[in-house]
Amino acid sequence: MAITSSVIAMGELTIRARRMNSTLLLAICAGLIFAIWSYLVPFDGGPDEIHHYEVVHFIARYLRWPTFGPERDLYMRVAPGTRDGWVFGFYALYPTYPYLISALLIRLSPSPNLEVHLARLASVGYGVMTVIALHRAARLIFPRSALAQCLVPALSILIPQSAYLFAYINQDSFGIMSISILFWALVVLKNTDKPSLWNWLAVAMAWGLTTMTRQHVWVFGALMVLSFWQWPNPRWHRRWKIQLLGSAIFPAFVLFCWLLRNYMVYSDWFLYKTARAAWVSWLQVVAPRFLNPPFSEQGYSLSQFLFSTPWAWETFKSFWAKFGYMSVEIPNKLYMMYGIFLIASVACFVVCVLNSREMFFVQFLSMALALIILHAYKNYTGDFQPQGRYLMIGQPVVFSIISCGLYQMKRNSWLIFAAFMFIVVLIHLEILASIVPKIPGVNPI
Question: I need a labelling partner for 338 at 20 to 30 A (CA). Which of 141, 232, 281, 392 fits?
């Protein structure tokens, strides 16, 4: 009996070691690939990087959060040789938590020439944490398939736009990481018959991370929590709703502190008026031609907006691969290949759901659609920015859908699956070799 117990224990340890090894291997691969992208992409080769860096550099120098305005810490300053000839401190209006690690790395830099590269390591680190969170969550979502478990984080590494976002200074990388960690915490909670205090604290901390960055991130984070509310574990204690509400205290507190600061500094809780006025002032200086009213005020119906404007096509392209200030594209044939890849994956996902009768996966589809609708509505009623990178916070659900479809595809035909994955890897390498060098940049200032 003792020997049998020992054998079982050794078997469990072996399984855990293999799982940890696969997570570690994925994390190392992610770190290397994201670091290569970070090295190859020139400074300001990502949207608004120079403006993000303005905030990071201020924090590193003065060890405090900046305020924005003509008579405050950051506003507009002339910067010859840059893309617009100006640097804008507009991102001081956003929560500055994502910049703290970059600022710390700049403080530790032994040379001014290394400051940008070290600051970018924060985004690389956020990418590695995203891959770890996605893999740990996928282990619970696809417990019977090691392949499907690895596909979810592998897509985060292989989709060029994702790797690109983890290569330069921005807020999107932090948002993707925070949503992925929240997703992991929620999946663990759902698969735990008797959640402990630590499980609920993990959800609270992860949820709090999503409130430390841009508004669309914490809105989507709240929607993700609400969606999991619809699929509770039947073995949970009947007071689980109260416990879930209790886990909302920390994120609510973090968000309230930021909103209170906005009111105390700018007399504007959500900074809608302040940010809009700042954006108009910026466009008047650098690009007056873009000072147009929203499509909703131009007489467009929502259907006209969706089908008569380039919103859908531009969003699709910039979700997969579009670089610089959304000006560097890949050949259209490659976009078409990504389109075929997506359609085939989603079709196989539908087949998988119908065969397994696992309706929990349908929730992933509803969350992905909700994110797309939110993005479309924002472009319809506000500034027209059809940038698919804003949808990247949906990596946990979007890549779970694609991975589920790819797994079903592999079950039907290993050859077709291998061909699709080979093409995805090949496109990634082609972009690194021939497209990334075309991204324009400037010298750090």
Answer: 141
C-alpha separations of 49 from 63, 151, 171, 265 in Å: 20, 30, 10, 25
C-alpha–C-alpha distance, residues 27 and 157, integer Å: 10
CA 64 to chain centre: 26
Listed residue (239, 246, 226, 233) closest to 182, CA to CA: 226
What Rg value do the Cα atoms of the chain yield, rounded?
23
- Measure the CA–CA gap between 363 and 411, rounded to whole angstroms: 23
Rounded-to-integer distance, Cα 328 and Cα 221, Å: 31
DSSP conformation letters of 367-409? HHHHHHHHHHHHHHHS-----GGGGGGGHHHHHHHHHHHHHHH
pLDDT band, very low/low/confident/very high, at 238 (cuts 50, 70, 90): confident
Residue 8 has pLDDT above 70, yes or no: no
Spatial neighbors of 77 by CB under 8 A, at least 6 apart, are: 86, 87, 89
pLDDT exceeds 50 at position 274: yes
Mean pLDDT calculated for residue range 111-136 = 96
How far is residue 392's CA from residue 406's CA, in Å, rounded to a whole number? Answer: 19
Please state the pTM of the whole predicted model: 0.94
The continuous run of DSSP H or E covering 131 comes out as: helix 115-141
